[in-house]
Amino acid sequence: MQLMRAGWILLLAVPLCVRAAVLPEDRFDLLGHQYDGGGMQIEGPSVLVRKSFADTVAVSANYYVDEVSAASIDVVTSASPYTEKRTEKSVGLDYLRGKAIYSFSYGNSKESDFEANSAHFDLSQDFFGDLTTLTMGYSLGKDEVFRSGDNTFSDEAERRHFRIGLSQVLTRDLVASVKAELITDEGYLNNPYRSVRYLNSAGSYSFEPERYPRTRTSEATTIGLSYYLPWRAGLHGEYRMYDDSWGIDATSWQVKLIQPLGQRWTLETRYRRYNQGQADFYSDLFPYQNAQNFLARDKELSDFDSTVFGVGIGVQFNRAERETFNRAGLHLWVDQFQFDYNNFRDIRVTTLPGQEPLYSFDATVTRLLFTIWY
Amino acid sequence: MTTRIALLLLVMFLQAGCSIKPWVKPYERSRLADPVMNAAGHPVAESYMNHVHQAREAMRGAEGSAGGGCGCN
Lengths: 374, 73
Prior knowledge:
By secondary structure, chain A is mainly beta. Chain A is built from 2 helices and 18 strands.
C-alpha cells in the first residue's frame, strides 16, 4: 500500500526522460534492484523493452516487481512483520512529428490491498534552432484501496498531474532547465493500517487510527544545470522546491558527476541532501484522543533530513557486426542513505512518553543493470 | 500609463527576440551530445531511484531535470 504512492513515479519517469525531437533508443534493460534499511528489504527486477519503427514511432513496455519483507519501526511497534508483492506493468508509445514528440503511456500496479491505473500524455517540442525544448504533460490516475483482513473496507482516490518544463542550451558546454509539476489528489489518501499515539489518563500512551484530509494539492519546481567539464566529464546540479496544501515544505539539491575512464568504463558519483518540514496535522504524540480533525504520525510526513552518497561503475562493449545488437553494457550503482528525524521518536525504547530518543536509520540501495542496444 | 509602458516594453522585448539568432551552431554541439551530458541515461535505473526517494519523502513531482534541448542528432 505505502509502495503505491511512490510507484506512480515509475510510470511518469519514462516519457519525461525523452530527449526532444529524437525518439528514445532501441534498447533492452534488465535491472535488479535491492533496498535494505530500517527493517525493510525490498527487491525485484525491472525489465524495459523499446523498439522504434520507421524513425517516427517507438513503443515500449515495462514490467516491474517489488518483493517486500517488512519489519520497519512502524510495523514492529504497531503490527506484525509481513511480506508483500507489488507488480507493475506499463506500455508506452512515442510519436515523432517534425520537431515534436507526443508520448502516451498507460500503467497498472497491483498489490494484495491496492490497485492503481494511470494514463499519461506528454508533449516535447524543439524550437529556436533546437536550442530550446518545451515539455508539457498530464496524467490521470485512479486508485482502489483495500484493507487486508477487513472485507468491508474499500475506498478510492483520483490523482491528476499537470507538468511543464523548459530546457535551454546556453553555451556549447552548458544546458539549463526548469520544470514545474502540480499534483492534485482527491479521495482516500490514508494508509489504512497506520496509527497515531496519544497520551492516556494512566500517564502512558495509546493508539488510534490516522485520519488524513481527502484532498491534497502540491507543487514542485526543479531547476537544473548540466556542464561539460574540460577533461570530458558531465557535471549535473539540481535544486528542487516543494510545498503542498498539507503544510509540508521541502527542498533538495543534488550534484552528480559522470566521468568516463578510457573508452569503455564510466564512473558516477552523486551527493544529495533533502530536508522537509512536517504536515500541519502531524504529531509524534497527541495530548489526548481525537485531539484534532486530522491526525498523522507517518514519519514521511514529519520533519526530517536525509543525505545520499552514491557511486556507480559501468562498462560497455561495442560490436562491429550489427546484425543482432551493436552495444551491450553492465552498470552497478550503490547508494548509501541516512535519515535523521527531528520529531519522530523511537518508541521501541521504553521511557516516559515524549522522552524517547529521536529515530534515525540508514539504508543501502543497490542497482545492477544489464543493457543491450540494438 | 503603467499599462502603456508595460505594452511598450513587451513590444520592445518581442522585437529584440526576433533579432536573436541561435548562438550555438549545430556543429558546435558535439559536447552536448556526449552521453556524459545525460544525467538520466539509463531510464529504468533512474526511475527506480526516483521511486526510492518518493517512497520515503513527502516531496513529489518535477523529478529530474527536463530532458532534451541539445538538438544534437
